[in-house]
Amino acid sequence: MSALLELDGITASYGAVQALFGVSLAVAEGQVVALMGRNGMGKTTTIRCISRLMPLTGGHLRFAGQNGAALGAPAMARLGIGLVPEGRRCFAPLTVAENLIAAARPGAWDMTRVCALFPRLGERMGQVSRTLSGGEQQMLAIGRALMTNPRLLVLDEATEGLAPVVRQEIWAGIRELKAQGLSILLVDKSLREIASVADHAVILERGESVWQGDVGALTPDLADRYLGV
Ligand code: ATP
Fold first, then answer.
1. Are 71 and 79 in contact (CB under 8 A)?
2. What is the pLDDT of residue 90?
């Protein structure tokens, strides 16, 4: 079976400055893959390339059987990339419900199902999203991506800067999504949480994928060498 998402040696630059020097990874249907690496190693840039917010300068990108490099960001989203960007961007003046409705596309995910995943959102449907806590905004950002009924959910540092108890709620939500069979690519630095949910890990070092394997094979040595933990 071919992978849902496949990157083969992708390269990308910010102007004259090359940021990616060859990133390869694959996400199979129903798989959870963690993209890891220290600060500035190219994780967000890789995600920007996958969601077509940034052009590739080389390599191959296939998603859902299509040549992703030939598609723009809206086409990629329609094809099923559900991006939860770093910084959990929501439409601040809109309510929780309005944010969710604005993202909705036909499919199995609707507001009821999002609220079952994150009950806190259900309690705040009429609240303006600007006034939500950081954790609630993150739940809303994930809810918005789910409302598009993605084939692949892409999470960039979904728990960064949140209080431990809220982080646990988000991780519980991610584990539930996995149990429901959703394919997920996530960037995170928490080895422990990644070990609890991911099947596979890919490590980036200076814009290149330098290691990949089962999360169970992520030894303390590897973590020390590539992740600085
Ligand atoms: P972090 O964990 O800190 O978010 P990251 O692994 O996501 O890091 P990227 O944000 O992808 O790393 O950055 C990869 C490289 O690209 C870095 O050297 C960074 O300085 C550079 N870079 C990122 N964004 C820009 C930009 N807008 N303009 C120029 N260079 C950039």
1. yes
2. 75
